[in-house]
Amino acid sequence: MGTFIKEIVYNQAFIDQTSRRKGDERNREFWQKMGNLHSSYPDCDILIEAYAKEHFSTGIAEDLKITCSSPDVQDLANRIYNTDYYVVPLKLSELGCAEKDEVIAHILQNG
Fold first, then answer.
1. 95 pLDDT exceeds 70?
2. What does the alpha-carbon distance between residue 63 and residue 14 come to, in Å, rounded to a whole number?
3. Buried b / exposed e across 84-93, counting CB within 10 Å, b at 16+?
4. How far apart are alpha carbons 21 and 90 in whole angstroms?
5. Per the CB 3.0–4.6 Å rule, which of 3, 27, 40, 74 could disulfide with 68?
6. What counts of helices (H) and strands (E) characterise the chain?
7. Are 105 and 14 in contact (CB under 8 A)?
8. Roughly how many angstroms between the first and final C-alpha of the chain, as a whole number?
9. CA distance linking residue 78 with residue 10, whole number of Å
10. Is the Cα dihedral 92, 96, 98, 104 positive or negative?
């Protein structure tokens, strides 16, 4: 049986979780399709890594890197990503707002 893992690979300590949840809601169809993809190919390992990247409006956003153990499933996953995934603009929590630029730089460099 293959695995289906979503991993967040950046430091979330300074991220406002409400902005992450809004992104998850906006990407609901993407997550449903990825779940269905795994159900269709249960022997395939699918790893989805959420990472931080620069974003024009908020300074920082969450994007995904998808790795599948099967090239055919990888192609399908890439197609789902390209048609259904929205990059999630993130907001900093109260902790991160005082030194916004430094916090964003730290998150981008460390994960």
1. no
2. 17
3. ebeebbbbbb
4. 10
5. 74
6. 5, 4
7. no
8. 29
9. 22
10. negative
Place of tokens 């269905």: 36
Q: How far is Cα 50 from Cα 44, in angstroms, rounded to an integer?
A: 19
Q: How buried is 44 (Cβ within 10 angstroms: 0-12 exposed, 13-18 middle, 19+ buried)?
A: buried
**Within a 13 Å sphere around the CA of 89, how many CA atoms are in the beta-carbon half?**
6
Which residue has 């969450």 as its token pair? 62
51: closest CA among 31, 40, 66? 66
Range scoring the smallest mean pLDDT among 3-7, 77-81, 107-111: 107-111
Is the CB of residue 60 less than 8 Å from the CB of residue 52? yes
CA 58, 60, 61, 63 torsion-angle sign: positive
Q: How many CB atoms lie within 10 A of CB 6?
A: 13
- Name the burial class of residue 56, with classes exposed (0-12), middle (13-18) and buried (19+) by CB atoms within 10 angstroms of its CB: exposed
Residue entry with tokens 């995904």: 64
Strand partners of residue 67: 47
